[in-house]
Structures are given as C-alpha cells and as structure tokens.
Amino acid sequence: MEEYVIDIEAENKEIRKRYRALLRACKPTLQKGDKQEIRKAFDLALESHKEMRRKSGEPYIYHPIAVAQIAAEEIGLGTTSIVCALLHDVVEDTSITLEEIEARFGKKVARIIDGLTKISGVFDPNSSIQAENFRKMLLTLADDVRVILIKLADRLHNMRTMEFMARHKQLKIASETSYLYAPLAHRLGLYAIKSELEDLSMKYTDPDTYKFIAKKLNEKKAEREKFIADFISPVKEILLEQDIKADVFGRPKSIHSIWNKMRKKSIPFEEVYDLFAIRVIIDTEYEKEKTECWKVYSIITDLYRPNPDRLRDWVSTPKGNGYESLHTTVMGPRGQWVEVQIRTRRMNEIAEKGFAAHWKYKESSSDNGLDQWIQKVRDVLSNPEQNALDFLDDFKMNLFSDEIFIFTPKGTLIQLPNGATALDFAFEIHSDIGATCIGAKVNHKLVPLSHPLQNGDQVEIITSSKQTPKEDWLSFVVTAKAKSKIKSSLKEEKRRVAEDGKEILERKMKSLKLTYNTDNINKIANFFKYPSSQELFYNVAKGVIDIKNLRDYVASEKSHELAQNQFNSHISGLVEKIDKKNADTILIGDDFQKLDYTLAACCNPIPGDDIFGFLTVNEGIKIHRTSCPNASKLMANYGYRILKAKWASSQIDHSFITGIRIIGIDDVGLVNKLTNVISQEFNVNIRSLSISSNEGIFEGNIMVNIHNIDQLESLINRLKLVAGITSVTRYESEN
C-alpha cells in the first residue's frame, strides 16, 4: 500500500483558503461582532480536530468548514448556524463537553449542537438506532429548526465525499438519505438539495442505472440546448416588448426524477420527454407578483398550446412548505410537451433556499404553512411513548404527501395531506374533538368518519361525550397527529383494563398452586404467544384466557423438558441438511462466510446483482438487491441488521427466478415468437406467464429461471429485436 505523504504547510494554506471562502459566503448576513464569533468557533474546531483525518486522508477540519459553507451559501443561514456547523462534531468526537460550548458560545449554540450530537447509550434491540437519532434531531425542531438545516448540510457534504467509505457503509448512508433526509429537504422547501441528495443516493444504491441515465443525458446535451434556445427566443422577445424584466432559461431534471418517471410509466429513456423544465423568473415588487405571473402565463400560452390538465397554481395557494410557483405544460415547437415554471425572484429564493428564505420574507408573506407544518411535527413529538419506528413511518407518510385545502364552517382554511378523512380533520382542529367525533357533515351532507375529503370541501364535525377512540380508526386515518393521539388513547385504555386482569390472574394462579412471580408470568405470556405481560393481563381481563387455558399451560410445562431434548437432536440434524450447493452461492458477513440464507421474493436477486444480507426476526438471513424497492427502508431503519454479501462466483450452475415485462403491438403469433426466443434460442425455462391485450397493445409478464445477470441482459436485448416489441424490462417480483 502506498504511503500517504502529509504536507503540513500545504494543508495549512488550504485550510486558510477554505476559511476565507467561508467568510465570503457569510458576508450577506454578517452583523457587528459576527466575524469574531465565527473565528472563535473556527479556532476551537481546528484545535479539537487537529489530530483527526477523514477516510480520504484529508484533515478533518475540511468537513466542518464545508458544512458551514453549505449552510451559508446553499441554505442562506446566519452566524449562529455557521458557528454550530463549525462545531457540529466537536462534542461527539473530541473531549470538549456541551457545558464548555455553553460557557463559550451561549445556551442557543449549545442547544443546537446537542440536537446535532447523536444519541449514545443502551437501546432496545428491537428499536432502531437511526430512528432514535432521527427522532432526537426532530425533537429539537420544536425548539430550533436550524438543527435540521445544519444536519442536512452535514449529510449533503458526507454524500458528496462518500467515495472513500466501505461499500456497506455507502449503502446504509445512501439508503438512509433517500428514505429520510431527501423527503425532509423537500418538506422544508430545499428543492436543489433534495434533488442532489436523491441523485447521490442513487449513484451508490443503483450505480448502473445512474451511469446509464447520466451518459444518455450527456449524449443529448447539444440537441437539448438547441431546443431550449428555439423555445425561449420568442418568449424573451415578447417579454422585452411588454417591458417585463425576467430571466428565461432551461433547467435539466434530476437523474433520480427521470428514473422515477421511467419506472412509474414503464417507459425507456427515449420516451421521457420532460428531461428539462423552462423557468421564467420575474423581477417585480411584492404587490404586483400575482398579476405579473399570470401575465407571463398568458404570453406563453398564446405562443404555445397549453395542456389544460397540467396547470398547477401554487401562487394563489402556496404549498405547505412555502413553495410558490405557477406550472404549466405546453406543446413545444417540435410537437413535444414542455413544462414551464413561472415565479418571481422572491418565490425562486424560497424554492431554492426553502426555510431560511421563507423566514427572511416572513413579514411580507401572509402564508405561514411552514409554521403550521412545524406545529404538526411538535404535536406528533408530544407523544413520548411512541416507538421510534412507528413514529418514523407516521412522520414519513406525512412528509411527502401533497396537501388538500379544507374549510371549517366559519371559512377557516385547514391544510391536510392528500387522502385525509373526516376524522383526520377532527383531530387537526383539536385532539378532544377528534377523540369524541361520531360523524361529520361534508358540504352539508352527513358522512361517516372514514369519508375521504376532497380539495375545497367544507366540513362540520359532530361529537358525543360518550365516544372514545376505537382500534379500527387507525385503519383509515392518515395524519401522524391523528394516529399518534388514537394510539396513545388506546394504550391508556388498555393499561387500565390490564390492571384489572393482573388481579384476576393472581387469583387464578393461586387456585392452581402456581407462584405469582415475574418468571412465571413471562413463561405464561410466552405460552400464549403474547409479546408482553401487559397483553397477557389485558386478555385475562377480556376473558380470552380462563382457568381451563391455564391448566393447559401447567400440563405443557411438564412435557416441556422432554420436548427440549427432542428439539436439540432435531437442530443437529437440520445443520447437516443445509443444502451445501445453495450455501456456497453467496458469501455473507464481514468475513464472507458460507451461511444459510433465502433470496427475497420482493426483488429476486440473481448472480451479478449488487446484493446485501438482512437479518430478519423469524426467517434468518434474506438476500436483497441494493436497488430493491424495500432496501432503502430496511437500511435506513435497521442499519445494524444489514450484512455484507457477495456472489461466490458469477458462474453458478443452478438457476434463479426473475421477471421480464414485455410491451408491444399485439399481433398474431407474437406469444409464439417470444416463447421460441426464451425456450429454444436461450434454453431458459418459463416458470409463469401472464398476458393481456388492450386496444391493440400487448403486455406480458414472464417469470423465468436465469443463471446470471449477463444471461438476463442478452435475453432482454434479443427480445427487443422481435418485430412489434417496444419495451422489455426486468421487474421485481410476481407481486
């Protein structure tokens, strides 16, 4: 291994250069005395991290400077945030304590850094450390949103410099990023950062697709730029004539959003037409914003025919994260749909810098959707008992959803996620109204609690003091606030009932001469397959378990010893029966051992795919593809259960199931041609075949037994040559 030579002088020069660049980025927000405060933080960070280096071999201080630079330049944060960004790893990685930070920089800085410092200590093994960390970080959101913004800057820099990390760490961090941090950036209105995080995640979790799309985009660059120039030239002319000051330019879509479109619509790259959007940014005063936006809209739709179904007006009612813009799709000069986004400079800054810019313009803006959203997060976090993973799922569900606008009987506007029901609306108004809700009137008509609301509905809630939250409510509410309040109310009720059950069980055990102690209670709970003693007490109180069932338990205890001996001999027999051929196919863990595993049915990996192992609770090790639809959730929530895995060899003599989706023009004998290619030419077994034909379009899903990725690619390329076939793609599973 070649020696890494350190040139201290050159490094010090580079550190000074980066620090000066940071100060230049902070210039717009600097007040009197701020420069000294930033210098003080920089000196402390430099001193604390002086012995540390990053995986790339660079001095560690490069990282905090870069995070501070992103916070200043790309998010537009002020001095307090810059200080915190410079010090964000000091408490976690060095001997400096939070108390020392507070003494030197004050309470506010110490509070933010505490939010940025990961949780340490012992965890419930069934919980997820990442979920707990994420929850802790969000708890500080209730106090200071800058924690999240600095965390996003930290994550963005880590993603930009991840090439020196071990592959399994890259996968875990990339999955966590696409699962949690990209949606969070989206929710806070940081669209540029959200797109970059998604693209960087994809670069590591699905490198082949990422490189393929990047290459295709590059090949078409010149053609695309000419099209954009032809499109915007007449628009600019008319804007000039009408004395409207505006910048008009084309902006390419992110690789991730192009891939999403290809996947959702099952189309090849060549059929994705909106590879870019045209953006018009108007320079005008706040009072004239709406008028000018609609004026530009009418200029563009006079030039190019608009698609009436594709008008999105977020100027009249901004999104919950403060985003304002007018989007339309028009038919371009070459018979191609083009998305046009119209907004003012103020709106554009809010779209690019999200939260920070929103705050800057807060005095002039009547919209406070972002404040409402943060209030919602606080409400969700106010339930202290919620399991971190439940919390994460509820939170994620509300993170990405589009809003609908609902009116109260008095005309107040309430924002809810798409798909919300009358009961969600009741909880949104007040927890007590939700808990006692028995029905609702939507647009003066009586509807049940589960009635899904539409944009613009007017809703009146009917309550009764006798009503209490029910278990089945959880199946139709969608907001995190409603879910969390219902769960906590049900828990309280269950705890009360369980207290009675505890006394009943104690009496029953006495009559059977069983000692009432923790050990026996746990054994009984296990026997009846209840996860906790509380569940056991609850079911005793409800009469599910009576004296007869307890006698069964006593009898089973006596035969338990005999069964244990038989079980031990059965296990030793099983070990010998492991299919050696199968166990040799994949090597698992840090030492790449031969362990028993099963292939996950959700993504059907085949030799040559990038894979990882996941340790399940009941089914041993499951092997998934890194691009599996479930991978990012597993890695984000259960990083500690992820195992490295690799194929022992790409030449494996047994076959694996995978799916091929074929779309084309329906024709006589097409199925015969396809099955001939698969069975005769490639000698591949077809496991299942489902075919449908609709208005002349043929669609077939074929599950086949394949040896490796090379054979699959050759088969796909050959099937594409069959006359009339327009697209052949691999798909995840039979479901």
Topology of this protein?
Blueprint: H1 8-26, H2 34-48, H3 62-73, H4 79-86, H5 90-93, H6 98-105, H7 107-116, H8 129-139, H9 146-160, H10 167-187, H11 191-205, H12 207-219, H13 221-241, E1 246-252, H14 255-265, E2 276-282, H15 289-303, E3 312-313, E4 326-331, E5 337-344, H16 345-360, H17 369-381, H18 388-400, E6 403-407, E7 413-417, H19 422-429, H20 431-435, E8 437-442, E9 445-447, E10 459-463, H21 480-511, H22 518-527, H23 533-541, H24 547-577, H25 580-583, E11 586-588, E12 598-599, E13 611-615, E14 621-625, H26 631-637, E15 642-647, E16 656-665, H27 670-681, E17 686-694, E18 697-706, H28 709-720, E19 725-731
Parallel strand pairs: 2-5, 12-14
Antiparallel strand pairs: 1-2, 3-4, 4-5, 6-7, 8-9, 8-10, 11-15, 13-14, 13-15, 16-18, 16-19, 17-18
Helix pairs in contact: 1-3, 2-4, 3-4, 3-9, 4-7, 6-7, 7-9, 8-18, 9-10, 9-11, 10-11, 10-26, 11-12, 12-14, 13-15, 17-21, 21-23
